[in-house]
Amino acid sequence: MPGKAAIKNSLRGFLDPAVTLLVRLGVSPFAVTLAGLFVSLAGAVEIARGSLFAGGILLIVSGICDTLDGSLARRAGRESAFGAFIDSTIDRIAELAYFGAIIVYYGARWEEGRIAVLLSLVALAGSFLTSYTRARAEGLGLECRVGWIERPERVALLVLGLLLGKTALFVVIVCLAVLTTVTALQRIIHVRHVTTNKDVSG
Q: Using CA atoms, how far apart are residues 123 and 35, in angstroms rounded to an integer?
C-alpha cells in the first residue's frame, strides 16, 4: 500500500498540467488559496442546508485548491514564510467551517442528532489540538509529525462520509472524534518524551 508521500506526489503529478496553466496565466498562489477558502465556505453552507453530497464535492474541490497553491508557489518561485502561515491559517478556517456546518446539520435534527453534535464538537476540538500541538512543538524547534491522523486523512474521511450520506457521516464523525483525540494525546506524549530526554541529556 503506497504511503502518504507517494499518494501526495501522485496527486501533484496529476495536477501538474493545471499548475503549468496557472503559471502561464500569472495566477498567484494566494488567489488559489482564497478560491479554496470560498469553495470551502460554499460547501459548509450546503452541508448546513442538508445537502451532504454537494458539500462533499465542494470539499474535494477545495482540497484540490489546497494542493494547487503549494505546487504553484514552488513552480513560480513564490514560496514564503507568510504564504505558509496564511495557508495553514486558512486551512483552520475551512476546517472550522465544515465542522461548524456539520454541527448545524445535526443540531437541526436534535432528537436524532444530539449525540452527533457532541461527537462533532469532540472531533473539532481534536482536529484543532492535533494541528496546534504540532505547530507549538515546531515553534520550539521539535519535530512532531507523530500520530494516527493528520489533516489530509481528516479531509478524506469527511469527503467519504459526506458523499455516502448521513449514516456514513455519523460513522466518520465517531472515527474522527476518537482518532483526533488520540493523535493529539500521542503528540503531547511525544513532546513530553523528547523534552524530558533533552533535559536529562543537557
A: 25
The one catalytic residue in 66, 69, 87, 91 is: 91
- The domain total for the chain is 1
Three-state secondary structure readout of the chain = CCCHHHHHHHHHHHHHHHHHHHHHHCCCHHHHHHHHHHHHHHHHHHHHCCCHHHHHHHHHHHHHHHHHHHHHHHHHCCCCHHHHHHHHHHHHHHHHHHHHHHHHHHHCCHHHHHHHHHHHHHHHHHHHHHHHHHHHHHHCCCCCCCCCCCHHHHHHHHHHHHHHCHHHHHHHHHHHHHHHHHHHHHHHHHHHHHHHHHHHHC
CATH code for the domain in which residue 21 is found: 1.20.120.1760
Give the domain extent around 148.
4-201
Read off the pLDDT of residues 83-136 as tens digits, 9 standing for 90 and up.
888 988 999 999 999 999 999 999 888 777 889 999 999 999 999 999 999 999
Q: Contact, 97 vs 155, CB < 8 A?
A: no
* Spacing of C-alpha 13 from chain mean position: 21
Residue 79 pLDDT? 83
* Global pTM value: 0.86
Residue 91 among the catalytic residues:
yes
